[in-house]
Description:
- The complex is a heterodimer of chains A (309) and B (265).
- Chain A is α/β, with parallel strands linked by helices and 309 residues long.
- Helices cover 32% and strands 19% of the residues of chain A.
- Chain A is built from ten helices and 16 strands.
- Chain A has helices at 82-96, 109-119, 142-145, 148-161, 177-186, 225-238, 252-260, 271-274, 278-292, 298-301, and strands spanning 10-12, 15-17, 21-23, 45-47, 64-67, 70-73, 100-104, 127-131, 166-170, 191-194, 198-200, 203-204, 209-210, 217-220, 243-246, 265-268.
- In chain A, the strands form four sheets. Chain A has an eight-stranded parallel β-barrel with strand order 3-4-7-8-9-10-15-16, surrounded by five helices. Chain A has a four-stranded antiparallel β-sheet with strand order 5-6-14-11, with no helix packed on it.
- Chain B is an alpha/beta fold and 265 residues long.
- Chain B is 21% helix and 34% strand.
- Chain B contains six helices and 15 strands.
- Classes of the chains: A alpha/beta (309), B alpha/beta (265).
Amino acid sequence: xxxxxxxxxxxxxxxxxxxxxxxxxxxxxxxxxxxxxxxxxxxxxxxxxxxxxxxxxxxxxxxxxxxxxxxxxxxxxxxxxxxxxxxxxxxxxxxxxxxxxxxxxxxxxxxxxxxxxxxxxxxxxxxxxxxxxxxxxxxxxxxxxxxxxxxxxxxxxxxxxxxxxxxxxxxxxxxxxxxxxxxxxxxxxxxxxxxxxxxxxxxxxxxxxxxxxxxxxxxxxxxxxxxxxxxxxxxxxxxxxxxxxxxxxxxxxxxxxxxxxxxxxxxxxxxxxxxxxxxxxxxxxxxxxxxxxxxxxxxxxxxxxxxxx
Amino acid sequence: xxxxxxxxxxxxxxxxxxxxxxxxxxxxxxxxxxxxxxxxxxxxxxxxxxxxxxxxxxxxxxxxxxxxxxxxxxxxxxxxxxxxxxxxxxxxxxxxxxxxxxxxxxxxxxxxxxxxxxxxxxxxxxxxxxxxxxxxxxxxxxxxxxxxxxxxxxxxxxxxxxxxxxxxxxxxxxxxxxxxxxxxxxxxxxxxxxxxxxxxxxxxxxxxxxxxxxxxxxxxxxxxxxxxxxxxxxxxxxxxxxxxxxxxxxxxxxxxxxxxxxxxx
Lengths: 309, 265
């Protein structure tokens, strides 16, 4: 019997987090902003907004459009750049004790490598997440994630720069899930984030113009969850490294689906925009479910899917 | 800023397709400053997915929740607002706010309020918070497509401001836009110390900003942009700054800006 609090500790490669509920990159800032109604220290970890070597202004507005059960974004990786992050944000993060994974983005392999070497020895950062899947920039981003050979080379290069835990955030667009995943784990990553947003678009029928400034954007929200669930299951069944699910989590039940399908942790993203208490609600749901199903540890829950033909 | 569940204690259609919504919850109105906004999640389901930003126009005074309430004016424009308009009294909504940077005013100037369409609601909170003498000394020009869409202007008149109305269909007030009314009446409106506060569609704000600049008048504008988080982390509500200075967030650095801060072209 395990009526007492189950052990929610989450093991991701070399990392052990107190629970498997993470804030997804781009939806929770740099970890230093005030998020309403939430003690960010309750998160298993927070993945920062993507950082590049130099500051990026991002795309012109309009940058977001609501769609059925989701949203399209074309933010364009607007960020403060490495220097400001290191100088102004990291000291605050160290003081806060928040568990932080830094999401990094480059336009070239060299830029990724430099980010990894600069951040890879810093105290106060638990790991790096390589963004090779942003659909909203002209250079880099998804171009790295769609070609397994390029991806393999990139991950290997970054791996050589740091011994810090390294996650790769895969794209769901234009590549077989296992091909990109395998290219990443064979190059030495410690975990895979499956997946990022899906390329999509919306049209203003009165103006007969795209509703996003750059024409297309990344789709997130509940609309993509079944698609990503399939990819999580597929990759988790084969990968020798942990899979972190990311895509359309809006409830504890959504997170449970991912964990049962094989994920070791879940990232909560745009779902928290409409419900700032979502992180805590997911955590409470997980705990209740494990008590109800007499599961003592997260390992008993993760990958417990039965009946798949 | 707080997250709370607020009870709908008023939902009244005050002009065709526009509703006055009363939300009561402990603490909801305490920190509210004129020009700030609230994010409302409409229903528990995934569709509509995102919360919606709405300016508040006044707090109190109903007895419910000890008067701790705010009122919001919204226009039915899509499925989210259509659904909000059908909600029963007593239903609870998740509310986040008050958010953003609101209107700034000192008592040294004479306010000239310019409101276009439903955007004029944000100016009501400003008017309400002005010292009584200044409120009576304020000019408010309010325009809408139709003469039956001028509830905000009538409300400002009831609050004591000197109001001029404009309707594009000519049903009520000046026949034309609020900008045309402004230019028509500018000689009688302008005084030493006039300060402009404007809220409405982007093109109207752009024209107001140009006009105020040509007259050398201080001018604040409140922008409407699509928003997702409302708290500065998603960067979806970007507004371009003048002079190639990049973007700021309407939800954090705005929604009220000094007109000269914004890139209008």
